[in-house]
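Hey,

The postdoc asked me to send both predictions to you directly instead of through the lab channel. I've kept everything plain text so nothing gets mangled by the mail client. Protein one:
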Amino acid sequence: MKKKENSFIASTQNVEQFTRNIPQRVVDVKTNTIIALGVFLVTFIVYLLTGAKTMSFWDSGEYATCIRILGVPHPPGNPFYIILGRFMSTIFGVASSQARIASMFSGLFSALAVMFTYLFSVKFISMFDKDKLHNILGGVLAALYTAFSFTFWMNSIEAEVYAGLAFFINIIVWLTLIWIERSKDYDNQNIILLIIYMFFLGFCIHQTSLQIAPAVLLMCVYKDIRNNIKSSRFWTIAGISTAVILLGYYIFNGVGQQVQIPDLGKYVFFILFTAALYLSLYKKFDWRFVALTIGLILIALTPHIYIMVRAGERPFINEGYPHNLELFTNYVLRRQYGNTSFMVRRASFLYQLTHHFTRYFGWQFFNAETLSSWTRIPANLINAFFNVFVVFGLAVYGMYDQFKKNKHSFINYFMLFFMSSVAMVFIMNLSDAEVRDRDYFFVTAYNFWTFWMAWGSVALIANYAKNRIVKAILIAVVIALPILNMASQYKIHDRSKEFVALDYGQNFLNSLEENAIIFTNGDNDTFPLWYAQAVEEPYAKEFMRPMTMVKPDKATWDAINKARAYKEEHCFGIRKDVTVANLSLLNTPWYIRQLRDKEGVHFNIPDEKLDRLYPMRLDKDAYVSINGPSPEFSFEIKIPKEKGGLQIKDLAVLQIVKDNFGKRPIYFAVTCSDASGFENNLVNVGMVDRVVPTQGKDRIDLDTIVENVDKVYSYRSIFDDSVYKDANATRLINNYGAAFMRISQYYHNRNQADKAIHYLEKAMDFISEKDQFNMSLAQMYADANMLQKSVNYVEKELKLRPRDVDTYQNAAIIFMNSGQPEIGQRYVLSMMKMIQPNDAMAKFIFNLTRQNGYFDEGEALLNALKAEAPSVNINPFLLQLAKDRQQLEDYKADLE
């Protein structure tokens, strides 16, 4: 009898232990569904309210364009995102602009991802807490923190693939918990098949959907690991398998470099990992499961067929031209960006972890600048408080409480976070010279982190709220926190009135003459132009200027007309006559062919030689002759050997200019830091510089640039303080200010002070760091005899640099040269009080007063300096001033 009782007790304990390690149905299905849908609706409505009406900077313009024209975006392509986006565009195409539809599409995906954050959070909490309120509250808090975190929200209001990525990752986590809840011994395999299908369908939106695959695998097999963890055989097999997989990757990665298969190591890694997985689990799954798995993976990957098929049709955006197997493989494996290996770190791992991952982490919650403007508390104190006590403190407490109550749940969740954070940092291998912030790569980790923030909040209530009043207060506080986070971030995510990116693109296009070729530098001066050309944007405006200083021949007109016919078929926006040539893409043969075949650009290098273009080293100065259609279009440029060499894109630019100059207008965007040797042959007309045959520095076409900045360009949203401009937008807006500055300088050099001041003041409206122009403004106002304004800017500068001798000296020079010696004297005397007088200061006073003929003022200032610093010898200067005065008086006497 005793034996039977012991057996029953042991059996009961096993059942209890099992149920503690699987999700429980603490919240009834109906309630859970209603709350989940409520979370979805609230977040989706906010995303709709803050979504962009038109395109944004970076990749969103390209994605919105590709959705409209069924284009092929940059590698690796995101085909399922483009197909789904096109479906949404077909349904809602009449209702709004293309970019608005795309942002709504992202908002829908993100809101669904937030809903599944709630659902999987409830599942995890149910593994260690059986209180219905705690489950619901924890799920809602996690969902709200995720929905309105910085990067997640940003991805939800523009055409961006990371919203779709978040949806697939979160639904996969939820499905995995469903399977763990229902499975006894690897049954319910249909759910596993669905999870595998979702992984690879998500791969067609973004390849990092596989980032949590190892964690999901661990969640599925954790029970077996736990049962075998004390077995030496288990650890032996696990150690040997890991060593073989890593060694295989290391060896074949090196072999791949030798045999021109750079990704061989990755292939071997996948094969060895799959083999180890099969050998470990083949007894649990029969051949039919394996066959279905392979079939579902292939079906899930079928959207990639779109890439090859559509590339063959040569759409307007066709990056990589992956129309055959070789180019398609290069495209999907992102070889355009170079081959990387985990073994070759692009920066130290510590740098990658701190500068990229944790720095971006600090942006995610409770915008300190906004809260500071509300409370007048310094932003750094607010940032420190919320990051330390709320973001970090609550999460750490949540981790601790979860670990204490259910290690099984904690280990599973920790692996999800680890794979999306530390492992992701290792895999992405970001460099120390990224062209932009890459916070979106880690948005999954920030999403997972919110669970611990939420549970830390609930755990405080569960563990310390012993009476109803305290509990009510704590609940109110923890609910108020994510609401405060949302409120603090609302303005910086509100794109509903933002037109900066669209105007930026259309202003580039509208600067150009008809049929122009423009060389652009990066994403932000290329994608907005593509979008404006390809998409029928209701907010876009067109301005066309006829061609001048060109003589197109018949071949050129034929090429232009052929390109126009192609554009009319594939593009639906403004300025379809313009050819946009991106400098980065000019390093690739397929892009040169695209410009030649579809954009009407002459490029007289045979096809067989295009694939053999290589960078060229310069051992001496190079001279390149540009022989236009007639002598007035011919000139020569010098490329100094100090440049070091010519990249493929430089050779392509040289060839395009050689073959097209004098036949079509050719321009460089002002954002191009390197004009491939044509720097001295440029004339500025605003946002672009035109290539001309004559040479000179800092030249402008006054009539054209004035017409552009005053009449042609759109500046919507720039002067609307309710529209938030991030650092990137602010930096690009400065380019408008630079155009006004060029006009101002032109008039200043011609002593037209009123016009110089007018355009300088306009420039200040666009320039973010205005203080760097304080002294320029002071000079111009002094020249215009507007003395008080001049003094105001000098004083502003001196507040910034109260002990800077150059500032005092420049102020003195401005007023002495402008015929205001008393003001100039004042600044020299102020300089003596702030900075110890010395011989150099005496020499400065002597030269300044002597050249302006202010002998009395010079003597007075030198004597004042002597009083402050007796060791300074001022006698030679006084003697020379006396001689100069006498000579001047003698000269006047002779005239009389």
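Protein two:
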Amino acid sequence: MNHLRFALRQLIKNPGFTAVAVITLALGIGANTAIFSVINAVLLKPLPYREPQKLVRIFEYSEDQPHFPMSPADFLEYRDQNSSLSGLAVYMREDLELSQDDRPERLTGMRVTQGFFDSLGVKPLLGREFRREEEQVDDARVVILSHALWQRRFHADSQIVGKTIPVSGKSCTVVGVMPAGLQNVGGDYRSLPYGETVDVWWPFGMKPESWEGTRGSHFVNAIGRLKPGFTGPQAAADFNIIADRLAQQHGENKGWHINLRPLHDEIVGKSSGTLLVLQAAVVFVLLIACVNLASLMMVRAVAREREIAVRTALGAGRARLIRQTLAESLLLSLLGGAAGLLLASLGIKLLIFLAPAQLPRLQATTIDGSVLFFTLGVSTLTGILFGLAPTLQSIKININDLLKDGGRGTSGGIGKRRLRDGLAILEVALALVLLVGAGLLLRSFQKLQHIDAGFNPTGVLTATVNLPPARYRDSKERATFCQQFIARLEALPGVSAAGLSSDLPWTGYDENTSLTVEGKTSSTGGFGGRYHRASSGYFRAIGTPLVAGRFFNSGDTIDSRRVLLINERMAQTIWPGESPLGKRIGFQDHPKENEWLTIVGVVGDVKDTPEASIAVSALYMPPSQIPSRELFLALKTEGDPMNLVGAVRRELSQLDKDLPMADIQPLNALAGAAIASQRFTLLLTGMFALTALALAAVGVYGVMSYLVAQRSSEVGIRMALGAQRSDVLHLILRHGMFLAAVGTLTGLAGALGLVQLTRSLLFGVGPTDPVALLVSPVLLGSVILLACWVPARRAANIDPVVALKSE
């Protein structure tokens, strides 16, 4: 306590030094605390389910498809025959419409099989879960409400169980209400990201006879709970015994196997790389801050050498001196840690605001006990790190020289000068590693923004409309609605093109189909591709060009010859070097002659994701012939797309007042969301790199300023003997740029090794991208030159008479 009290008095006596040290530490510790709090919430905390370590996602895989959803027909077999899971369920998103009280509302719906909630370990707040018999009918009219929907639309009615509500044109009985805070588990196919709100759950129809002959259709997300005593690999082995048996019984199952992944890994796995890179970046910032403060403490220790010499002469041992120096550095680091916590609390809010929706569990980020313990540990370690160099310096002083009257001591010793120079070099090297990493991410982001995506998102309004099967029973009714809705939209002022489709670009859509091609056989096992439904106006709205043939027209009706468009990729894959126009394609499940579809046009390729190197083979069918229940609207506008929302709502209401419109946003927003994760990583890494650059510049400036102060007499002698100001300027700059050069070379060597960690985050560039490796050292060198210029100018302006007066 005596050491701490003395250290506190010393810090109060030097408010300038204390303020600089605390602010520097607050930046480094605060950034580390903020990023760790996110890592703690996303990666380290257990999922909010009962015994979450036992929850697994189940996937089917083959040689061509390494990570695929499950087939409903296979699910029924696995559920009945496995011995390793206490619960197995499948789920898939399918939205519904609530038309109560003349207020139509789109509800985010999830179709689930019996046992879904029991597998998660979640019990309904009111009522019950679905029963097995309710999934044995094709149209079970029962629903379970979310807690939020129950409160918002039904005023938390405690008697809601057993009542009927109007859902998608039919009356459904409420059988349960789930508790508040239930987190959606996420999924690959037609699901919501983890944590997104689900309004209502309803049974997944699982009559065995309904799914016979569809084992090749893989589209349901599967989740299960391990029985006590079973591990993931043991359960996978159990499932693969069943898979082998199914492969012998059904031709469609040949080559398919089962893989199980912990639910936690499946939810957070894609985010771990980004977060760990960010944590590494802030650790570099903290190291630079430590080096900076070590240099400051060494300079301060020089000023206190006579004091330490007197204390040593009066009997202070080395251990006591070390404790005193470390007490001061630890007190500084704890003050910096406290200030860093305040910065971290603000930083967490900023992170949540900037973070992409794809980053799961972010809303659970708080400063809890784990974060406080982390901050205390980092603060303590930091205090030891930056206090180590001045501590070692303080115990090596020459007492006799320092106590001589007028003695200059050893502050200008070669060893100490080399140590300060070494710290400056280390700062430059660490800063360069961060700059190279940020430069690579910037180059990657630039590549992403300039890819040829196959569509133009500017000035396009998008929305979704669902046609409930109870009121739009057959294809003719849906086709008529699509034609009338498109005609109304095209007539709106300011609309240059309007269309409907079954999906939108870059939204994760990946429905595939196996094809038969008239007169063609495949040497690789068959033909296939993405299948979509889209009107001609959809292509015009999003700017996808017609390459050959024609778009769909008014003659392509539900009663006419079936037609389709294909993309360039499919044309080149199946008919290389020849025109596909007039050729015919059929679906493998329907090989009859009357199911052939004739190709009437070829459109440009649209990539599935921004990172995709090439587009996937795709075909498009007209909604006028094969209409979808889920319609995605695309309107090309002349001004702000959102200005048309009211007019579109009115047109929809005039067609059907009970149909709500949802997911209203510009296509630009959807396209931006697809690269939001890369933007987030680039923004934060860039901020940390600039902070590191500033700290390195301050560190070099401090070293050079101290050098000038120590060599003022030498400079005075040189100038007295005829040296020009330019000579002095070059002398100081040469030393500073030597430190920068050594630091740059060291940093480049470190960067080439460490930036390999960012390989998975890069697109279109490699870890050795020449632009990033050239620009980063130039930028760093320019800043360091500026940091050296100021003390060099001060040295060049030294008056020899004043400098030599003390001699």
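Summary for protein two, as requested: Confidence is low (pLDDT under 50) at residues 405-412.

Thanks,
C.
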